[in-house]
Amino acid sequence: MSRLLIADCAATMGEATRAMTASTGRSGWLRLVESSHPMRPGVEKLKVAIEGASALFVAFNERCRTPVADPACSVMFFADEQCTRMVARRQGPPHAFRPFLAPVNTLYAVVRGPDAATAASSTDSRERYGLRCTVRGLRGVSWSAEPDIRREPSLEWACWLLTYLVREALPEATLRAGALHTGDMLGAMVRFLRTPDAPFKPAVLALVSSVLACPQYFSASDAPDLTAFASIGRSALALLSSAAGAAERLFPPIQLQHALEMAASAHAARAVFATPLFCPVDVSSSAAGAGAAGGVWNPLSDPSTWSPPLAAGKDLASPDVASLPELEALALARELFKPLASAARCAASSPRLGRIPDPWMARAVAEAEGGEPSAVSAARLAAAHRSSAEWTRAMDEELIAWLSGAARAAEKSVPALDAKALTLTARDKSSFPALAFEDDASVRRRFALLRLANALLARCLRLVDATGALGPASMGALLRGAAHLVFAHTKEKVVNAAVKATKRSGTFGSALLLDHDEATAALAAGRCRPETSRCLFVQVYEHLSRHPASDLRGDLDGSECLFRVAFKGQEGIDAGGLFRGTLTDMCEDLFPPPGREAGVDLFVRTPSCAADPAAEPEFAPNPARTNEAASALFRFVGVMMGVSLRFRFCMPFELAPVVWRLVAGDTVGMEDLAGADGAVVALLRSVEDWMPPAGRDASRGAGDGAAGGGGVSGAEAAEAVAALLLDGAVLGDDEALDAALAGLPADDAAFVTRFGGLRFVDSLPGGDGAPLVQGGERRLVLPASRAAFVTLVVQARLRRWAPPPA
């Protein structure tokens, strides 16, 4: 089955890319569609049809927009002339006009303009530009009905299948070399990426990067042609260097970052093809029983364990990081972070995925022990690899904490510490138990290695898409897995560069007149909703929202104030005290100390914090505040976070760690929720850990064909129990419910009784009672389905605190 899937994936990808490339070159299959400019009052209807196409790809001009102040203005696309089957809707500023793919060959566009009064009052016609787009007819893109499967290939299907195979089968699992990694498939994807105005490019680009991340899976007789990637890298760097402003050069568009990382992947793969592809020695793990020279295995049957031979002599030379071209630094950084990130995900006894590149390991040994990298012997290098493979995430986290303390004591940055002088004292080992059994040589090598990794990262960080959208083997994903290894100094350099690149000249220049009495009266009256609050945070928002956020990126004045503050009915000149006092009051409006109500209830204490008054204050977004007024204030909280970071005001935003991780886009789970809602997580764990009485098998569910009294099946009994619970019946106090419960298998009945009749709704403490799945209120949680229930509850609780999509 797996071989058939792989063969089908390769064939479909090749056919689909050829069909796509051919259709983009057809005469008459590219049309320009546009409305009146500026938009006229009323409704304008447009039609585009491309005979023979199976799909239409719509890309918008950068000037497209509708008035933001008029939510009725929009551009809608329909698949039928009666305008009942909407395909897409676009409105607002230019960035909201994202391209889309429609699986039809005819589209009807409806451009709804402003009313006459709004059009007459508008002074800027660019705000009412309207629609201008290109519509390209395509074949081989997607299937809209089952008969399409026989007529043409589907690039969408090929992308999905290849993504599944690459992300699920590599690099942990065994895959035959040349099964999925072929020069023809890679060439087909590169040709597709070079096709203008084609859809699915982000998905294909991510696939190319993922395939190149594991070059050992290419057959030795079918090495891919990587020459095209060099020109792609040069073109992307040229675009980056030609960016207009410093901010654009520091924060490249995500598409440019993806192109650069793909080129870096090819650069790293080219280096692999220059070495022997198969070698019988692997020193990446001491867990496999490797001796001084490493373990032996058959790489032809398992390329996932491939590792090049140990380098020696001049091959151990590593480049000067400071003078490395950024693209080369990105390629080298990714190869170094791959084993570091995989080790962070593994237990101490697990084999590592790959090993630290020999030149960097030799350089770490030399920096820690003295001498030149080229003089590091094979025995010392192999020993260093084995030692590195035994480092766990807990050890690294304690090492970083210890190094930070040593740097503070020496009044240096962490990278400035002398590796050869580092020594763990007995007191250090008692404070950092994970390091207690490590000798100084191992600690010094690890620090030297992490310092090299951070130096490489700092050289290329602006080229990295930190979201990890390119897949688990991308540099962004690797960084997320190894974020604990990134020094604060490395991050500060990026922040400082960003502050400098986005700085504007001059001071803010405006004074804010605030009303303390109004804020106090609103607080006393309990007016804390975003629509009614008059606290100082809301008053400052009302003043500053009239200015673009960029106005807050200037200089502080002579009194170290970003803006001056005055209060109604109070005399005096702000010499800095009123400004800083206002910042403190604004934070207390959001995160009130014990005994004080919030000035505006955008945030609430986490359940764990609310249950323990002595606990450190931790807040999470109030899930009840979702309207436009609340959204505007939440955005202003982000503005003030930026102000605090830019000017080092150290404003206390007392958010729970899980909220910070959600804001950063990190992957979160039950362990993160436990810190904020310990009671619910404890209950969920008791559901997970429940064991049937007398050691019966808890996996036996109601679908086993068991029948209760009267011949009722277990499934029917479960439905009856759920229906009665929905109607308000209580276990142990309702004869009909007890009778239905008796129809369940014994283990299921014991589970339902133990947890009070859980259904697939968020009914645990603090829940909103909403169904976790469609029809969840009528679905009983049984031992066989409890794992799904736990996962859904965790996702629902975390989703309440997650920021809305941009």
Automatic annotation (TrEMBL):
InterPro entries xref list: HECT_dom, Hect_E3_ubiquitin_ligase, HECTD3
UniProt keyword list: Ubl conjugation pathway
Domain HECT: 548-689
Listed PROSITE patterns: HECT (PS50237)
Short name of one Pfam family: HECT
MF annotations from Gene Ontology: ubiquitin-protein transferase activity
Signal peptide per UniProt: none
Protein name per the record: HECT domain-containing protein
Species this protein is from: Cafeteria roenbergensis (Marine flagellate)
